[in-house]
């Protein structure tokens, strides 16, 4: 963890180093992934079977290619009642928030007599990658699947590796709850290729979302344009802006809630109170000592943690906008005053009683958010990632007479006579 | 041009071949582009000067790195009055249509007492690639620049190659009209790298849009994630659905308006009238004979043109949805009836007096549209490409008591104890 202060002479340089630190490993899997995708495109299911045997250690023909809807329902029914109620609360709140995102169609006629508008449609089919093992989070399945279903996607397909054939009951339960239509026991770059190109067994989809390792991320990147994808994701991060009136243990817990994700995660505190900064640093050590995820959290905090002391919170929005963090907590007396000046952030958590983790599960907004300063130009996952807009126009003769000649002039100036002709031929009497 | 009929026994296979024909050259420039981008990142302006000398044949230090605002204004003032009026009509109609796209912020408190919402902000800076030479279209500049400015982008930067130092006055005039802030005389993959990474002279931007050759497209693809980009674009295409009541010459002109773009462009006619199909095929030949762009248009029509005869227009929407074309014209008695069943299209042109070219210039909707069947999952350019959404939540103690325990249960089930702790510590009395 490093301590900075805006009062220090070298603050600008040190802060710039924090901003520029990507923390993303430049894993060189591009050519290997490219070969796998070409192979899946050419040989389909045979490649899936071979690579599943190789990487996951089971034979799909024996263990089964799909998890049935019945098995997903059985996993849901077998949940501990409290956990089932928690998943149901999360699903219903996520559904309500995303339903309000549904865009409206437009259809109007302007003063020139031109009918104009746009209609939104869901994609026909979406694929959702769900990692196997430690990072197989039911909350993540809900956050990806529910917006797709709210958007109106007819066919929602999950691919997930099942190492040694073992499934994750929580993930299956979430798939049942979210209304997933198909669950295939394949993972890795080849599973993403199967979703994009289709195979004998798996029909192709139009959009692929969901988290994954470097191979999965690279496969999505290479298939961008063949299918739509969500943003390429990097390590998680949180920026906490907190004054001295907070309980240091609360803020320490918030910082560690990101640090426990991965050694490359980053937690940053901005405060205007040096004594509070010391207290939080101490509380982090206390909290770490009791944490089951201590090794990961400690590495993240030691390597990437930052405490920045500001002379005044007036300095905070500019720093926050430079960082453009995935998560921003504002635990001050008047959080709205700072929030109003923040332009670049994935999601913002306002006030002393809004720990970021509430947003990970049950608040309603999506927890799939831009990382690595990408909040400068991209947004969290939404129903719009599963929909697309078709614009339309309709002219009658009078409208074409009104605006057509200008189009003819422009087409001729651009050296496109057939464009001009398609209009002028209709204006000839 | 090939003629198909849904009555033919081999129609399904032949139509599938049309659908699967990508027409996009798999140019292998990835490694060359990757090297250029790394070089720009490392050496900045020096690389721009070297590659501009090499590819565009002029020295930036002599010809000047930028085109001044005064020069853009002078180009605008020097326009032929009719052309200036046409550009102004186009700009004002594009501005009006895109202003209506501006998204609304949300801010509400639900029954659990959770404050929820989302705020939209423009990106700070956007870069627009404008090709040099033949494909330097002022209309394209307007279609990219105006949505950015309507979105609220503070700094809008154009990069454009000026071969032998020669600028395109129409493009400069459009840049003036659209309110572009900077015009740099650099093109190619290195110009895209300069926009994304920044150089000594050019400050980095957050989003890069605009058309370009294979090198530019590959640079954008590789930089996706460093900056936001618009969709990777392929050859233009039009699907015309027309009945026998149309003037065959009108429909022939519409088909050729796409064919003249590029030899790889595609024009497809669907009609329920065999005699009309013959008449259009004949009219295409007549129109070609008088067209200055005849060589390009003829190659496109010969190589990629398709006429599909259907038994009934009831068959048309399913075919149109398979093709998911960039442009769809519906020139029938009741175009709305067919349009209502079309789910996948970039933009739709309704009725006999709505040639697609009107939409290229003055109708208002964007002419940057998904090609190559990407309308299945993506949309035309809009103000949203230059904006991003920040979600937010705010809980008080009662709200955290209402929804927090469910989040604690889920966090524990996912093996994330610090997530759970950040909530439970606030619920301890």
TrEMBL record, chains A, B:
Active site per database record: 326 (proton acceptor), 327 (proton acceptor)
Pfam families referenced in this protein's UniProt entry, alphabetically: Histidinol_dh (PF00815)
GO cellular component, one term: cytosol
Catalytic activity: L-histidinol + 2 NAD(+) + H2O = L-histidine + 2 NADH + 3 H(+)
Domain of life: Bacteria
Cofactor note: Binds 1 zinc ion per subunit.
EC identifiers of the protein: 1.1.1.23
This protein's pathway: Amino-acid biosynthesis; L-histidine biosynthesis; L-histidine from 5-phospho-alpha-D-ribose 1-diphosphate: step 9/9
A GO MF term: histidinol dehydrogenase activity
Residues at which substrate binds: 236, 258, 261, 327, 360, 414, 419
Keyword DNA-binding found: no
GO biological process, one term: L-histidine biosynthetic process
Binding site for Zn(2+): 258, 261, 360, 419
Keyword terms of this UniProt record: Amino-acid biosynthesis, Histidine biosynthesis, Metal-binding, NAD, Oxidoreductase, Zinc
InterPro entries per record: Ald_DH/histidinol_DH, Histidinol_DH_CS, Histidinol_DH_monofunct, Hstdl_DH
Names of the cofactor(s): Zn(2+)
Enzyme class at the top of the EC tree: oxidoreductase
Record family assignment: Belongs to the histidinol dehydrogenase family.
Its biological purpose: Catalyzes the sequential NAD-dependent oxidations of L-histidinol to L-histidinaldehyde and then to L-histidine.
Name used for this protein in its record: Histidinol dehydrogenase
